[in-house]
Write a structure and sequence with these properties.
two-stranded antiparallel ribbon
Amino acid sequence: MTLPYESHDLAVAVADLLAHPDDPRLPIRQPWWQQSLALGVPGIALLHVELAAAGLRPWQRAHHWLTAATSRPVTAGPDSHPFHGAPALAHVLACAATHRPGAYARALDDLDRAIAADARRRVAVAHARIDVGELPALAEFDAIRGLTGIGAFLLRRAPGSEELPAVLGYLARLTQPLPVGSEVLPGWWTGSGPSGRADSRFPGGHGNNGMAHGIAGPLALLALAALHGIVVDGQTAAIATMCIWLDRWRHDSTAGALWPYWITRPQLRADRAEVHRVQRLSWCYGTPGLARAQQLAALALNDPVRRAAAEDALVRALADPCQLAATTDPSLCHGHAGLAHIAHRMAADALPDTAKQLRASVPRLLGSLDPHDAGPRRTAAALVAAGPGVLEGAAGVALAALSCSNAAPLTSSWDACLLTAPVTYPQT
């Protein structure tokens, strides 16, 4: 099944339903609405920026949404994170500035200073935590709330800053073993459950493997930085350490390589974890995100064997009906749009034979966004009704559909916040 129309037509249809930031049908009174890249105004503004850059819709509409995002005080410091507040807004403005050089310069300068100060504070707190031998919280280092996400912004926006090497150095230190009682745990081991809160189902905590909240995010960032020529002490060794960890927990099945979403303390002690073949494929957890992170790591390490293995893992996963059946929604975070987007991005950096197979999978994955041939307008209406945001809503589906189309802006790196952007992308 493939879309009977161009995928960017779906992106345009979604954007037309989200044309006005003051539309009363939107959750405009929710406290997160103005500042959430995941759920609110910045994410929808990002869609309008990309469509304007593609020449599919006017820049004025994108400007209206960006104005709405900046019309009130922006949260910075400890209460902000890569998908909320200053870093979230700065990412969107930086994407707009890529397409319109010089635009939003004053606002970006102010946000840059706030984000740099917060990065320095976060790194200092993290090192102090390591110094006293405490386990980290997921929000200390992950891509959604933590220093990996902050580092992704700095790599995109300020690769020559002092703060980026500091973040990379911290992430390298995060991979060093941490003695806890009579045991030695990986440095990224957290005492909580995957939600970030205490969870009786995870006695002794867990080691998270995901792109959103686990080590795949730091692995991707360290690899991307190395590919951009930014390397600090311990960075290459840290990349290798995380790859060895993923090799340890890799399960080879008839459908290709599988990795558990996380490792529990009993599994760590037993050195064994069961992996279910029917686990959901997604960006946030599972093979697609891990495959992209390991592809980037292989490119950074010049490891052709790992590169081929990572790309083959995604090809085989996307050809497996059992794994595909576990993916049941259209979203960017954990749905068909995210799978299409990762396949498209990985194909751009893949070996020729694998790239051909990955590109062939994209139309089929996009077809799952409209399984009943309802057409772009009706499909867009259903997506918007389910939620307008980027990670789990209509704007994210639209961004993925646009990026997989021939209409996508060649200078786009809107997905730098997901650590899936092209290996080479423009700086602003």
